[in-house]
Amino acid sequence: MANSNPQSRKRVVITGLGAITPIGNTLAEYWEGLVSGRNGIGAITHFDAAKHDCRIAGELKNFDPLLYLEKKAAKRMDRFAQLAVCATKQAVADSGLTIDSSNADRVGVIIGTGIGGLKILEEQQEIYLTKGPSRCSPFMIPMMIGNMAAGLVAIEFGAKGPNCCTVTACAAGANAIGEAFRLIQGDYATAMICGGTEAAITPLGIAGFAACKAVSTRNDDPLHACRPFDTGRDGFVMGEGSGILILEELEHAQNRGAKIYAEIVGYAMTCDAYHMTGQTPGGIDAARAMSLCLKDAGLAPEAVSYINAHGTSTPINDPTETAAIKKALGDHAYKIAVSSTKSMTGHLLGGAGGIEGVASALAIHHDLIPPTINLDTPEEGCDLDYVPHVSRAAKVDVALSNSFGFGGHNVTLAFKKFS
C-alpha cells in the first residue's frame, strides 16, 4: 500500500513508546529491567495450575488497570484489550501527540494480537455450562474479538484514521508496526498508534501450548526456564503484556518539536508455506524476510549493529533463526550483537513484536544492547554473539527485529538512529 516510488516516500519516526511487561509496568521500568537482566518468569498465579504440565509463565506484577481506566470501562474489556489501551495511554503521553478534530482522520491504529480475548471466552463457557445460555454476557463477543484492542484505543483517543488488527500469531505485533509504517510512508496517515498485545495465560492457553509440546516444563526452576540458544532449553515460556509505538511522519514530528527515539526504515514479510508450527529447514524464508527488509531500507548487511532475535528458547526456532541470520547477513553475522529479550519477559505471542520493537528503538536511543540471560552453554551451531547475561554499551546505528509466527509468518523490521 506504500507509495511505489522510494524517492517520494515519507520518512517515519518513533516519537512515543509504552510498555506493560512481566519485568515492568511502565516504559522506564521495562527498559531498566531489560538492561539489568531482570527475570520476569515465575509460578503461575492467575489460576490453579497444579494439574498442568506447564506451571510457569511471565505474568505481570502488581498491574492495576484502574490506574488508567474507569472501573466500568475496565470491566467491559478483556485483559488483552485493557493492556493495549493502558500501554497506548503511556505512549501517547510520552509522545506529546494531541489528537483532536484538526487531525483525527489522519491518526490511525493498528494493534496485533495472536489470540485475543481467551480469558472472557473461558469464563463465559463456564457460565454457559453451569447456568445456561441466557446467562452469558452481552459483552462476551465484543470483549473476545481480536480487533477490539485497536477499536477501543481508537475510541479512547478519537483516532479516526486507518484502523485494523493484525492476527499473524507471534508475528502479529511486528506486522502491526510494519503496516503502520507503510501507511505513513504512503501518505495515508500522518501518525499511527501501533504494536501488539496479549493476555493468554489462562487454563486453556497454557494447556493448549503444552499439548503441542511448545512450552517449557522446568516448573521447579522458573528463573532458568527460558534460555534461548542454550543447550538446556526445552520450550518457550508464555508471557503477557503490551508494547505500543507512536509513529509519525518526520516533518509533522519536527514541526511540533517532538523527541525522536529512532527512525523506522524497513519492513518485510514472507511465508514459509511449509508447516503449521515448524519453520523452513535452514531458515531460508526467515532469511529472505531479513534480506528484503534491508533492501526496503536501502541498507547493506554491514550496516546492521544489532538484531533483537525472535529467540523463543525452543528446539526448532533458535538454530533455525541463527542459520537464517547467517544466510541473510553473511560473514557480518559474526560481527553484530544478537539478543533475545524473551529470556527475561517470556514470549508474549502477538504482543512480542510490540515490546521487542520498543526494545529495539531504545537500544538505538541509548546505545545499549539488552542481554540474553540464562545462556550458559550455546547449542552447537548457535555460534553468534548473543550478548550473554549482561547488557552491553555499544553504538547501535541500525537494529533489526525478527518475529516469526505459527503458520509460517516471518516479519523483520529495521530501525535506524535518526539523523
Describe the overall structure.
The chain is an alpha/beta fold and 419 residues long. The protein folds into 2 domains: 6-255, Peroxisomal Thiolase, Chain A, domain 1, CATH 3.40.47.10; 264-416, 3-Layer(aba) Sandwich (Peroxisomal Thiolase, Chain A, domain 1). It contains 13 helices and 14 strands. The strands form 3 sheets. A 10-stranded mixed β-sheet has the order 5-4-6-7-1-8-14-13-9-10, sandwiched between helices. A two-stranded antiparallel sheet has the order 2-3. Strand 13 (398-405) and strand 14 (409-416) form a beta hairpin. Helix 3 crosses helix 6 (148-157) and helix 7 crosses helix 13 (352-366). The longest helix has 17 residues, at 79-95. The radius of gyration is 20 Å and the shape is globular. The model has no long low-confidence stretch (mean pLDDT 97).
Condensed summary:
With 419 residues, this protein is of the alpha/beta class. It has 13 helices and 14 strands. It has helices at 27-36, 71-75, 79-95, 118-131, 140-144, 148-157, 172-185, 203-211, 250-255, 284-297, 317-329, 342-345, 352-366; strands at residues 12-20, 42-43, 56-57, 107-112, 163-164, 191-198, 241-249, 262-271, 306-308, 337-339, 368-369, 392-393, 398-405, 409-416.
